[in-house]
Design brief:
5 strands, Aminopeptidase, globular
């Protein structure tokens, strides 16, 4: 039986915290070259686990002897649309362990999110954003049926701006 057939998709639990934080930090470094504050990331992850109104983490795990090993994760958060009188689910913090990429792990997680969203009855769609230069991820998202949005995301990242003021690029 292929390992992918043994893949278990489930909601993350508090005992998954270390893996969620490790994967979140690895994703930020890999995709944006950002070294995240691990303690802040831990508190942010815990905030989601403790408050389902914020969203949920979905993890993909495989049996590894007597243990189960997490090989992928994603976070779903919610955005209310007054135009649609329903919510968009935003897929964020996607990470698949490098040893498990290009094997269908993300596809299975994505399909699970779509199934759950459609079953809710009050979800009007699924969205995600991707780093502009991350062509590998964009190809994956196209393969699972997503298409580029006509919207461009603008932001004022208060945390990043504060860090830049404290440690300008030329002093790092």
């Amino acid at each position: 039986m292929s390992a992918l057939n043994q893949l278990i998709l489930r909601f993350a639990r508090p005992d998954d915290m270390d893996e969620l934080v490790n994967f979140g930090a690895a994703m930020a470094m890999e995709t944006e070259g950002r070294a995240l504050d691990r303690e802040r990331l831990r508190r942010g992850t815990l905030a989601v686990l403790e408050s389902p109104a914020r969203g949920f983490y979905l993890v993909a795990e495989l049996p590894e002897g007597p243990l189960k090993v997490i090989v992928g994760q994603l976070l779903v958060t919610y955005e209310w649309s007054d135009w649609r009188n329903a919510s968009f689910w935003w897929i964020q913090s996607v990470y698949v362990h490098p040893d498990w990429r290009r094997r269908g792990v993300y596809r299975r997680m994505h399909e699970s999110v779509l199934t759950q969203a459609r079953a809710q009855g009050n979800v009007c769609g699924v969205r995600l954003y991707v780093e502009e230069q991350n062509e590998a991820a964009q190809a994956v998202y196209r393969r699972v049926g997503l298409s580029p949005s006509p919207y461009v995301v603008f932001e004022d990242d208060f945390v990043l701006a504060r860090r830049e003021r404290q440690h300008p690029p030329e002093t790092r």
